[in-house]
Here is the input.
Amino acid sequence: MRALTTKVLWLGALLVALAFPLLSDNPYFLTVVISGFITAIAVYGLNVLVGETGQLSLAHAGFFGIGAYTAGILMVRFDLSFWLALPAAVAVTAGLGFLVGMVALRTKGDYFAIFTLAVGVMITAIIDLWEEVTGGTDGLIGVPPPTSIGPIDFTSLFSQYYLYLFCLVLTILAVRNLSRSLVGRTFLAIRNDEHLAQAIGINVGRTKRLSFTISTSLAGFAGALYAPFLGYLGPSVSGLIMMFNMLLYLMIGGAASLAGPLLGTLLLMTATQGLLAFEEYQLLILGPLLVLSIIFAPTGIAGVAEKLRLRLADRPPPPEAPPPPTSERLENPDRPHAAPHAEAGN
Amino acid sequence: MTLLLQQLVNGIALGSIYGLVALGLTLVYGVLKIPNFAHGALYMLGAYVTFLAATVYGVPYVPAIALSVVALALVGVLIERIVFNPLRHAPHLHSMIAALGLLLFFEAGAQLVWGAGFRRLPTPFSGTVNLFGLPVVSQRLLVIGAAVAVMIGLSLFLKRTTTGAAIEAMAQDRAGALLVGIDTRRIAMLTFAISAGLAAVAASLVAPLNLISPMMGEAVNLKAFVIIILGGMGSIPGAVVGGYLLALVEVMGATYISSAFSQLIAFGVLVVVLAFRPTGLFRKGV
Here is the structure.
């Protein structure tokens, strides 16, 4: 029953998304929604690491920037087709993510957050200073739209919309399968208690590195999509405000849930379009909004919706330990999955 | 040789500022286990309060600094009460994210109220002094003298007074401190007040040498984090030593290598140190 309603909701959302460009051909709305799709992909990446593995990385926007610039530079300076630049950018961010993760994940908790903050700042500084390649503060101008495959061409906003929607759906499916797999469950185990995870035989270091690499690859994937969509890149794509926005979307939407990143990103990005006129001052509202939501609704929209649903279904919410952010579907079922693993570990 | 000595003085002055900022950060971390990403914003606000008191209300420089310290101490208490205290039992992640929200809120607020432009704070100590044949900007000497005085004062306060001992007790064990009758709520507020006050002193001292802007806290904030990681998070001597070391390396790097490069030194050092010693150079202890 429950799985059915969830499925119906997702299918409904997909239908609305498919029909959207047919209902409104306003290019402004399309642009906003496409940026939302691309950002949501990056936020799903952040969710793997922050929401599911419980490691706060502040370098995520940095990897988004690396992906965007790698794709942009390959397409502008080397005239590479988008279809080659995209996998190249993902490979670069995955590789760099693995290397950075090797060093960064030697640290824990606060040290990890601060270390990754420094990594993010360094990435932005390098983009800013390496003018011959990145264009420095002037930015990288003239990234072409994706080249056409056969009869389908991607010069119009309309066709780009479906390309980016396809990428988003692909990401959501991949992330869903990941969080349902054994690997996804080991991520949660580490988030809930690292020592316990180690005790039941999980290789904590390797699993964290895997989570970090997956997370940076998704950031790079989103970045590589962002470059040809915008056509222009500046160092701020990897800046602190971008990082803050991604965290905001994740926390408001609901960390460690499947719908959270999408909900948070689309809702807030649409809402903040109204504030676009005073972009500098958006943070006056968004800053406190993040603080309030963390204090009063740490599970975000997805968590609150889940609680309401449980109440409506006249079932008391399952008793759960308050500390980690609740993740409705991921914590309860299927213990058997973990059990053989634990035995193997012993 | 003159260049080297001059840069040495500059480095020590900069180190004094770094030290003060890092002290506030490490104190809050040591006592409350919060990496306060909003610390740089408190630093920026401190500079603006001194600037406004001095230029708009005509308060002389030194009383203006005192005013700024009091104002920022209040801000510190407020954010502890409103934001960090409610998050005390939440996962650690949450107070870090909330601090980020505060940082960007204060920066945007400063920009809205005071504009994005740069301001210069006038100082009565604008001349140069001849120090054994070496011309030195007197504001730099004031920075060094005042910072050292504040550091000594703080360490005497922590080591010699009952309240200081209570702060240290709480740093060791919050529950234990509560058990022996320490009012941990008061100590938490006091810690934030001291931390914000230190940031205000540092910013007000350095403001006449640099410029004031809503973003002035960002670079210092990051460097202060690098310093307390290198010095061991929560360690007071680590923050002071780390502050001077980083400043000297930066100033010498900017003089003899390149100034663009010197801005990256801090992070380069951080990466190298953490790669080999994931918990910092010094053992932790307030």
